[in-house]
Design a protein that fits this description.
The chain is α+β, with helices and mostly antiparallel strands. Helices cover 37% and strands 34% of the residues. Strands 1-2-3-4-5-6 form a 6-stranded mixed sheet. It has a single domain, classed as Trna Endonuclease, Chain: A, domain 1. It contains 3 helices and 6 strands, in the order H-H-E-E-E-H-E-E-E.
Length: 127
């Protein structure tokens, strides 16, 4: 599957999950349930993936932790906040740059409507 095809499944599952549970639960609840839904959709996922930092040829494992990585191609950062701001998108962009992946999403389950909580982030630009 391409990144865009994976992204379509991610968005569909996130919207469905939000419709069933509504906004305002802890991020960890949405994470475990979305991961399960994505697996049920036939996608390979990893949760809480460590992303090391390399600096001057030295690897630091105390880097970052991604909520969900789908098919080793798409990075998902889940939030349950009132609104997403630029720092959340830049966080995903950092993950994309460090991994070399092209596509990521910030999924804010705190929004009243899930469509308002979906931010697509591309390596090289923030939409």
């Amino acid at each position: 599957m391409t990144e865009n095809e994976i992204g379509n499944v991610v968005v569909e599952c996130a919207v469905r999950l939000h419709r069933e549970l509504g906004p305002g639960l802890l991020e960890s609840v949405y994470e475990v349930l979305l991961a399960h839904m994505l697996q049920d959709a036939g996608l390979r996922i990893e949760r809480q993936v460590s992303i090391p930092i390399e600096f001057h040829g030295i690897r630091f494992d105390e880097g970052f932790r991604v909520d969900i990585v789908v098919e080793n191609k798409v990075i998902l950062e889940l939030k349950s906040v009132e609104c997403i701001n630029k720092v959340h998108k830049k966080q995903v962009l950092t993950y994309l740059k460090l991994t070399g992946n092209k596509l990521g999403y910030v999924l804010n389950f705190g929004e009243e409507l899930m469509k308002d909580g979906i931010s697509r982030v591309l390596n090289g630009c923030v939409e």
